[in-house]
C-alpha cells in the first residue's frame, strides 16, 4: 500500500499544535512539502525548530483578509497546492443553550465552519491548476451524534459534513476529492480542558466526567492524534484515490455523547 506523500504540496490550518501538528509532521515525514498556519506564534516557532523546511505563518483563518495573505505565503513557499487540510477549530462554550451568548456562538461558527469556506475558495483554483488534489475537512463525531451543552460546536461540525459532501459532488469532475474526518475523543490537553469544563457544567467530578466520555466507546479508550493524521495521509495519497464524499469516523466506535 502506497502512503508516500512525496511530491505533494500540503497546507494544514492550525497546524502548529495538537492534532494539526501531528498531521503536518506526518505529511512532512512522508515526504510532502508542508505549509502551516496557526494563531499561536510560539507554537509555530517550536514547530519550525524541529521541522525547518516547513513553511509557517501566523493566521486567524476566521478572518478572510488574513486567509488571503496566508495563501500568498503558502503558494510562494510550496509553488502550488495539492492538498488542503482544514483542521482549524475551537471547542466553543460548554453551557446550556439559554446561557450561550451571541458572541460565543458566532466565534465558534466563524472558526469551525466559516474558516473552511474562506480557505477552500482560495484553494480550489490552485488544486484545479494542479490537475486535481484533495481536501480533508476536520469534523467530529459531534457532527453525526449531536452534543448536549456544546450546541455551537456540534452545529458547526454537522455543517462541515454537508459542506464536504456538497464539495465532493461539485469538484469531482475536476479530479478533486473531498472528505471529512470525524475524530472521536482524542487524547490531549484540549479534551482535558473540555472534560474539566463539562464536569463543572454538570456538577460532577473530573474523573466521573472522564468516565462518561469513554463509556459509550466500544473500545473504551480515546483515540490518538496520530490515528487522525494517518487517516488524512491515507485519504490524500494514491491509496485513497477513489475515496471522496465520505464522513469517516475515527473514534473507536463511539455510540453516543453523554
Q: Any idea what the CATH superfamily is called?
A: NAD(P)-binding Rossmann-like Domain
Low-confidence stretches: none
Task: Calculate the mean pLDDT score and round it.
Answer: 94
C-alpha-based Rg, rounded? 18 Å
- CATH topology tier name: Rossmann fold
Instruction: Give the strand line-up of the largest sheet.
Output: 3-2-1-4-5-6-7
What is the helical fraction, as a range of percent?
40-55%
Give the overall silhouette.
Answer: globular
Q: How many beta-strand elements?
A: 7
Strand fraction equals 5-15%
Report, as a whole number of angstroms, the end-to-end distance: 38 Å
Number of domains: 1
CATH architecture name: 3-Layer(aba) Sandwich
Topology order in helix (H) and strand (E) letters = EHEHEHEHEHHEHHHE
Helix count, DSSP H or I runs of 4 or more residues? 9
What is the level 1 CATH name? Alpha Beta
Q: Could you please describe the fold and organization of this structure?
A:
There is one protein chain. The chain is globular, with a radius of gyration of 18 Å. It starts with 8 loop residues before the first strand and ends in an 8-residue tail after the last strand. Strand 2 (about 35-40), helix 2 (about 40-50) and strand 3 (about 55-60) form a beta-alpha-beta unit. It has a single domain (about 10-185, about 225-250), classed as 3-Layer(aba) Sandwich (Rossmann fold), CATH 3.40.50.720. It has a 7-stranded parallel β-sheet, with helices on both faces. With about 260 residues, it is of the alpha/beta class. Helix 3 packs parallel to helix 4. Helix content is about 50%, strand content about 15%. It is built from 9 helices and 7 strands; from the N terminus they run E-H-E-H-E-H-E-H-E-H-H-E-H-H-H-E.
Amino acid at each position: 500500500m502506497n502512503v508516500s506523500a512525496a511530491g505533494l504540496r500540503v497546507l494544514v490550518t492550525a497546524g502548529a499544535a495538537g492534532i494539526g501538528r501531528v498531521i503536518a509532521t506526518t505529511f512532512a515525514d512522508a515526504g510532502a512539502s508542508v505549509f502551516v498556519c496557526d494563531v499561536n506564534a510560539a507554537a509555530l516557532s517550536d514547530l519550525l525548530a524541529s521541522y525547518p523546511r516547513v513553511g509557517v505563518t501566523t493566521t486567524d483563518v476566521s478572518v478572510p483578509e488574513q486567509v488571503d495573505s496566508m495563501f500568498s505565503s503558502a503558494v510562494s513557499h510550496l509553488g502550488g497546492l495539492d492538498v488542503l487540510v482544514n483542521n482549524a477549530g475551537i471547542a466553543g462554550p460548554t453551557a446550556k443553550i439559554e446561557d450561550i451568548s451571541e458572541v460565543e456562538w458566532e466565534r465558534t461558527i466563524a472558526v469551525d465552519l466559516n474558516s473552511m469556506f474562506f480557505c477552500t475558495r482560495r484553494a480550489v483554483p490552485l488544486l484545479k491548476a494542479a490537475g486535481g488534489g484533495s481536501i480533508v475537512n476536520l469534523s467530529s463525531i459531534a457532527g453525526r451524534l449531536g452534543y448536549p451543552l456544546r450546541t455551537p460546536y456540534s452545529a458547526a461540525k454537522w455543517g462541515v459534513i454537508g459542506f464536504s459532501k456538497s464539495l465532493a459532488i461539485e469538484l469531482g469532475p475536476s479530479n478533486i476529492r473531498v472528505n471529512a474526518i470525524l475524530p472521536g475523543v482524542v487524547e490531549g490537553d484540549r479534551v482535558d480542558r473540555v472534560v474539566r469544563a463539562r464536569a463543572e457544567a454538570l456538577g460532577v467530578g473530573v474523573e466521573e466526567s472522564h468516565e462518561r466520555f469513554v463509556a459509550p466507546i466500544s473500545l473504551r479508550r480515546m483515540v490518538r492524534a496520530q490515528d487522525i493524521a494517518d487517516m488524512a495521509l491515507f485519504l490524500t495519497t494514491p491509496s485513497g484515490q477513489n475515496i471522496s464524499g465520505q464522513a469517516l469516523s475515527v473514534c473507536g466506535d463511539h455510540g453516543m455523547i453523554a
